[in-house]
Specification:
Length: 442
């Protein structure tokens, strides 16, 4: 085996241009495919491992009695979010293992002692303390706020690792204060780096962006009337009674995503029965006059429904695989040309006793060496390509363009396997050369 590797290396150096062309051709095809595969893999992976069938978005049909929220033929769809009053009713009923209301706004963030000119815009997520346990959000320092803080709307906050690095140089900032707009919040916890992709729990159009900078209790947002209409999606089939925030809360406008965690089919069935009873009660009071459609959507179902996950990813991956096959076919032609120049060498080896099998093994090792070089170069090009993509698409999470260890190992394996497979034809042709025909021409 060592002898064959030595012959392969000598052959590489004898035809450096042709060998390098083969390596580059394989590398370009591998790099293009792995860049596409990495992004597609990260976009479609399970965001919360182990909880694909236990997290559900609650959807109710509280829309206009005269017109469906959205319909296509006989298929009627319901809003992805709830009214404030429905969310509060379901939360208070406490029928699920965990309850996670989701809303948000943006405000100016700074330290209390900093000047207003030093403040920077921060995206704030309002939710419940269950958010962190339900979605496996990693905590670096401290712990989420208490149940009492949820109920009373206390001025407490959990900040992201990025904010903690920017304001506190990465030190433990639990107990410190930050100022968000006109309010001062006490930090109770700091998140660790959290590459959750896709970010399924909020707006689908932002599914591939980083988690928000600051997390506060949902009730805190409501009590202090914190609202960013150009950030928080909301839809109304009937206008609120007046322009006050209180009227908005009691209106039929939908704007709160409400996730629940249920453990197993039996809990899901019980929760579905609870939702049906709830809607029947509301219908008796004059609400929910449309057909009863209660949905519990998993993260994947919700993202698919909102078209955050589409077949375009699979199409792009298919096109990149076609490009890889074209590159490998081209490398096959180059290998045939390379091995054609070795007919005399093969004839001499055969004439001194080398069998077809030994010649076959020699060229297989040479193909293996070319595939290894192509895979290594392809991995480097793929990493550079993902780096460029992360710079070009800065509005997306950089974690979307990161190879994990599985893909790093997979890349050279694909390159080596593909090069050996597509190199079989030139290898077989080279090993079947008859020595007499070539030696007669010497």
């Amino acid at each position: 085996m060592r002898y064959y590797f030595k012959l392969a290396w000598i052959s590489f150096k004898q035809t450096p241009l042709l060998s390098s062309l083969i390596v580059v051709t394989i590398a370009v095809g591998i790099a293009a495919t792995m860049i596409t595969y990495t992004i597609s893999y990260m976009m479609n992976k399970e965001p919360v491992p182990g909880k694909a069938d236990s997290l559900y978005l609650v959807q109710l049909n509280s829309w206009d009695p005269q017109k469906a929220y959205y319909s296509q033929g006989e298929d009627e769809r319901v809003p992805p979010y709830l009214t404030y009053q429905d969310m509060q009713n379901l939360w208070r009923a406490d029928q699920a293992r965990r309850h996670v209301p989701i809303s948000g706004y943006r405000d100016q963030l700074k330290l209390p002692q900093q000047a207003d000119s030093d403040a920077k815009t921060a995206l704030v997520r309002s939710t419940s303390r269950d958010f962190f346990s339900a979605f496996n959000a990693p905590i670096r320092f401290g712990s989420p706020w208490s149940v009492e803080a949820d109920r009373q709307g206390e001025l407490v906050a959990v900040i992201s690792a990025d904010v903690n690095q920017r304001l506190f140089n990465g030190q433990n900032s639990v107990g410190q204060s930050i100022r968000l707009g006109a309010l001062e919040y006490r930090i109770v916890a700091v998140l660790d780096n959290w590459p959750i992709l896709p970010r399924f729990y909020g707006e689908a159009m932002r599914a591939f962006r980083k988690p928000r900078d600051v997390f506060i209790p949902f009730e805190t947002q409501v009590r202090n009337e914190l609202w960013s209409s150009n950030l928080q999606a909301f839809e109304c089939w009937r206008d609120p009674e007046d322009s006050s925030f209180e009227a908005f809360l009691s209106s039929e406008c939908v704007w709160v995503y409400f996730w629940v965690e249920l453990n197993g089919p039996s809990e899901r069935l019980e929760y579905e029965e609870f939702l049906y009873s709830y809607v029947q009660e509301q219908r008796a009071s004059g609400r929910f006059q449309r057909k009863i459609i209660n949905k519990l959507s998993t993260p994947v179902e919700y993202l698919t429904q909102r078209e955050a996950i589409s077949q375009d990813n699979h199409m792009a991956l298919g096109l990149s695989l076609c490009f890889l096959i074209l590159c490998l076919l081209n490398s096959t032609n180059l290998m045939m040309a390379k091995f054609h120049t070795k007919t005399l060498e093969v004839s001499l080896r055969r004439a001194v006793g080398a069998s077809k099998r030994q010649v076959f093994h020699q060229f297989c090792i040479e193909t293996l060496l070319l595939g290894t070089f192509g895979g290594a170069l392809g991995l480097i090009l793929a990493l550079l390509g993902l780096k460029v993509c992360s710079q070009v698409y800065q509005h997306l999470s950089s974690d979307l363009m990161q190879m994990d260890m599985f893909i790093v190992v997979l890349t050279p394996l694909i390159a080596i396997s593909a090069s050996v497979l597509f190199g079989l034809l030139p290898v077989i042709r080279a090993s079947r050369i008859e020595p007499a025909s070539q030696l007669n021409s010497v």
